[in-house]
């Protein structure tokens, strides 16, 4: 039975009755797509090939000697949970449209990718998502990237060793165009955070039964069909069994100092005092720093970070419609838009991102998010989120403003904020908060099936 990508039932990957096609799918799928792989330490290599035969041989070598399958990853997680046995590092590969061409696929061949956004590449989509002009991107991203190689692990040692080995195998004809280093950050509770100091990575579409089973599901169903992240790999030996996923990569620099100033100005402007002041930042993100959803509670605190909520019954007086998590996942609709986010923070910090130190002690650049997400459709998921939701001040309700965290484009309309949580009284309309996240470059990739890579 061909794998039904639209089946809403989470994948019981370990079940004895799993059908042969689904088994084959898992044996040929890259890890980190269906389930997040540990990548506390992450190395991201951007490569250009220049010789089809050598480029193919290199990818085949990496795939056959360094990469595990989605199924092996799921087994490793199971064994870690049961016995504490450490898993192996993650190696992932994404190929751009230009990469497929350079590897010898014809223009007609590349049209087999249904996603026209992928076929365009990120540089040609600047206008749609209001990205900065390509000439302002970092040099690596201005160039024609053919492939990205992701290496991740809980410890820095294995990542460094694999990076050396993989770079050592790069043929003479190929070039390393640039690289990034990601490094996870955690708050004192042990939750992963981003540079503004907020818990990140908590809300994800889940595809695997054991992950879904662990989640409370009173309000929000975290289980999603595979179609949110998988498509048949058009060049694989058997696209019925061999799947891949569209990967968006964006380097997003965060001006933490400016964001922290904005939090304070907003709190002052709304007359928030004491613990209530934390609500200012929470109105921008949609969660408090510790991850508490603003739509559920007026104050931070109270146990594990919840993802079991919706915005139903919240007219914007609890969580503003513009709040980052409300913009990017309105929850009562648009489930098919949700991507599997697999990014990592980059940049060194000498301060503690979660504490209340004054803004002037915060970095104003050189730190940020290596945003990565797997999609079944870049057009209908990543780009739709950025363009039609985050960049759209009229999304859901007129004149509620851009996404204050990632919105791009002119923030010319004024917006009002709720003065008291859950009460209708609004502040006088004020200029939208300034943009503090700057896109420094990126590319669209396809993470092909292992079957494709091994057969190159
Ligand atoms: C969730 C921060 C970029 C889409 C979150 C959360 C934070 C956050 C703190 C809440 C944690 C969670 O619910 O998992 C940031 C920062 C960014 C950034 C600081 C840039 C530097 C983006 C981009 C997109 C995006 C570019 C997509 C266009 C999402 C989505 C969620 C989310 C879909 C989950 C919402 C939910 O399901 O409730 N982000 N984000 N984020 N973000 Fe971002």
TrEMBL record:
It comes from the Bacteria. Residues 240-391 form the Dyp-type peroxidase C-terminal domain. PANTHER family: BLR4509 PROTEIN, DEFERROCHELATASE/PEROXIDASE. Keywords: Iron, Metal-binding, Oxidoreductase, Peroxidase. It comes from Nonomuraea jabiensis. Its cofactor is heme b. Residues 28-172 form the DyP dimeric alpha+beta barrel domain. NCBIfam families: Dyp_perox_fam. This is Dyp-type peroxidase family. The keyword Cytoplasm does not apply. Belongs to the DyP-type peroxidase family. GO terms for cellular component: cytosol. One of its GO terms (molecular function) is peroxidase activity. PROSITE patterns: DYP_PEROXIDASE. InterPro entries: Dimeric_a/b-barrel, DyP_N, Dyp_perox_C, Dyp_peroxidase. The keyword Oxidoreductase applies.
